Amino acid sequence: xxxxxxxxxxxxxxxxxxxxxxxxxxxxxxxxxxxxxxxxxxxxxxxxxxxxxxxxxxxxxxxxxxxxxxxxxxxxxxxxxxxxxxxxxxxxxxxxxxxxxxxxxxxxxxxxxxxxxxxxxxxxxxxxxxxxxxxxxxxxxxxxxxxxxxxxxxxxxx
Length: 158
Fold this sequence. Notes:
Elements: H1 12-42, H2 48-75, H3 84-90, H4 102-122, H5 124-129, H6 133-155
């Protein structure tokens, strides 16, 4: 028995292109989740309590976001990546090789948040061409949240 064809008003080529882009967004988001969780566990210094709680809020939000992104990829008829190996190939966010000081953690997370924004923003041309409003809505929400989070983190550096 063959799988039923997907007929959601987006042709297969566009669905594959969108899913490929969303896979990069998923990898960036999951890598940022890992980095934020790592910092939550290991932050020290006078801003410990503030950063510990802030990082927890951020990684919890990212944990929910990766599920939404992966489910959108599946709705487009493509399997979502889900291994460290796949994410490492797809992400632009670098892993840490040590435990940075709190200020460096904040700077790294600003860069990570902004990287996710750039990845999300880069997908709009294919999403709009395909009239994929659901993916466009997801991207808009991700951009808005990551831009706000980057601003809040940057504010700690002033």
